[in-house]
Design brief:
Layout: E1 2-6, E2 14-28, E3 33-42, E4 47-55, E5 58-69, E6 72-76, E7 81-85, H1 86-97, H2 107-118
């Protein structure tokens, strides 16, 4: 674990103690956009999702902290926090992935969904 500070367009930087868990990037030739995604795990067993998009002089940087408290998933973007019941969040994920109830998405399915959502 190390101290991590992510630059964030919402004003204040995202700071936490954790480690990089996964990352990917791709280039959209049609729109000239490079997208980089990183997933971190914190020392408190939370997840931080970081996405940076850049195209020419334009750049956007967003970070989201996700934690589970009881039956709720708490999503915090540094300015706003929202709580969703975990079952409802999983229902939304299955719906976005086009999966039947009880189905488990593969990593490649989730990556394709993220690419489509971030396009």
């Amino acid at each position: 674990m190390e101290e991590i500070c992510l630059k964030h367009d919402n004003g204040s930087d995202f700071q936490f103690r954790g480690r990089l868990f996964s990352e990917c990037s791709w280039y959209d030739e049609e729109h000239g956009m490079l997208t980089r995604q990183k997933l971190y795990v914190t020392d408190n067993n939370e997840q931080v999702y970081y996405i940076v998009r850049s195209s020419g002089q334009e750049r956007s940087r967003h970070a989201y902290r996700l934690s589970v408290r009881g039956d709720n998933c708490i999503i915090d973007n540094g300015m706003t926090e929202m709580a969703l019941q975990f079952d409802m969040l999983m229902l939304a994920v299955r719906g976005l992935c086009g999966l039947e109830a009880g189905a488990t998405p593969t990593l490649s399915m989730v990556e394709e969904m993220l690419k489509a959502a971030n396009a």
